[in-house]
Amino acid sequence: MKALPLIMAGAVLLALSHHAGLRFNVTPSMPVGLYRLVEGLPDRGDPVAFRLDGNGPFSRLADDRHYLPGSRCPLLKKLAALPGDALLIDAEGIHILPRGAAASRLWPHSRIRNVDSRGRPVPSALTAGEIPPGQALALGEHPGSFDSRYFGFVPLAALHKAEPVWTVKTFQE
User: Fold this and answer.
1) What residues contact 81, with CB distance under 8 A and at least 6 apart?
2) Can you give the C-alpha Rg of the chain in angstroms?
3) Taking the model in full, what pTM does it have?
4) Is residue 143 packed enough to be buried (19+ CB in 10 Å), middle (13-18) or exposed (0-12)?
5) Edge to edge, what strands does the sheet with 93-97 contain?
6) Residues whose CB is less than 8 angstroms from the CB of residue 123 and which lie 6 or more positions away in sequence, other chains included
7) Residue 18 pLDDT more than 60?
8) Which of 85, 87, 110, 158 could, after both became Cys, cross-link 93 (CB 3.0–4.6 A)?
9) pLDDT tens figures, 110-149
10) Quick one: pLDDT at residue 90?
11) Helix (H, G, I), strand (E, B) or coil at 166
């Protein structure tokens, strides 16, 4: 019973830090650590925080397979592409052609896998072509990241710009 006050204090601290705009990333998709939500619209390459649609099939898949530490846990990814950018998907991964650019570039470690790290089939809702208005592509830095490669585009309005406060890179290229 002595642990109960400590658990309660931890829960209060977690709630207060979340209310203050702090997010803790524990997955290898991005460097592990503490991030702070900041004002302003995110741009390509910025870290972003968002939640999956709680009733959607990919949210249920993440819950069922424990891809995230808890239900409705925010994801931290990088904003890889914006509305009007074009995507080409091939065996190498996702090639992004920003609107108005002359050449595309391959997003690192973006090959879409057919199975997850435990060999279970994983579907992909991502399609090649132009990103529709109001949508964005959010990708992690890790080859096994659960990101837009699988659940598809994310509503741009759902993205919150984030900045690292204290992180430790756990993934070595």
Assistant:
1) 44, 87, 96, 98, 131, 136, 137
2) 17
3) 0.86
4) middle
5) 105-106, 93-97, 86-90, 129-130
6) 61, 150
7) no
8) 110
9) 999 999 999 999 999 999 999 999 999 999 999 999 999 9
10) 97
11) strand
> 47, 90, 93, 55: which is closest to 71 by C-alpha?
55
Q: How many residues does the chain have?
A: 173
List 48's β-bridge partners, or say none: 77, 161
Are 41 and 48 in contact by the 8 Å Cβ rule? The answer is: no
The pLDDT-based confidence of 69 (bands split at 50, 70, 90) is confident
Instruction: Measure the CA–CA gap between 2 and 80, rounded to whole angstroms.
Output: 46
CA 8 vs CA 11, 34, 69, 71: distances in Å: 5, 21, 19, 20
Quickly tell me which residue has 């099939």 as its tokens: 57
Q: Is 119 left (phi over 0), alpha (psi -120 to 50) or beta?
A: left
> Cα separation of 77 and 85, whole Å?
18
- Name the 3-class secondary structure at 1: coil
What is the DSSP code string of 4-64?
HHHHHHHHHHHHHHHHTTEEEE-STTS-EEEEEE-SS---TT-EEEE---TTSHHHHHHHH
